[in-house]
Amino acid sequence: MHWTRDELQCGLCYENEEKLYPDFFLSIKGHTVAIMEAKAPNRGSAGYRDDRRKLIDQMKLSVDGLLSSGINTSVVGFLVSGQRVEVFAMSL
User: Fold this and answer.
1) Could you give all domains of the chain from N- to C-terminal order, each with its CATH number?
2) Angle 28-68-36 (CA atoms, 0-180°, nearest 5)?
3) The model's pTM
4) What string of pLDDT tens digits covers the 92 residues of the chain?
5) DSSP secondary structure string, the chain?
6) In the β-sheet with 2-3, what is the strand arrangement from edge to edge?
7) How far is CA 73 from CA 18, 20, 25, 46, 53, in A?
8) 60: Cβ–Cβ under 8 A, 6 or more apart, which residues?
9) CA gap 78, 76 in Å, rounded
10) Contact by Cβ (8 Å): 37, 51
């Protein structure tokens, strides 16, 4: 398990890509399988769209990394905004 100060482990490194730091992610043997972006309950919906786009981008990179390693599985994403939680799954 990794918290916000750890860089996303997706198995792919792009020199011109910005480094991604999700609020939380779970990796197994260097491959990310679950990602979470969260906002505190008192923040309301500020930044909600940015977090949703960030989560989807992180999930796509993780799926790409899994596929390039020959692993065909889904990546799960959690978007937490206040008391609302959305769950996503991405695969090829």
Assistant:
1) 2-90 (3.30.70)
2) 45
3) 0.80
4) 665 667 776 665 555 456 778 889 998 888 889 999 988 777 655 666 788 998 999 999 899 889 988 999 999 999 998 888 999 999 88
5) -EETTSPP--S---TTSPP---SEEEEETTEEEEEEEEE-GGGTTTTHHHHHHHHHHHHHHHHHHHHHTT----EEEEEEETTEEEEEEE--
6) 2-3, 24-28, 31-39, 75-81, 84-90
7) 25, 21, 16, 32, 21
8) 90
9) 7
10) yes
What is Dmax (Cα atoms) for the chain? 42
Encoded tokens for 36:
């979470």
Owner of token pair 């491959």: 31
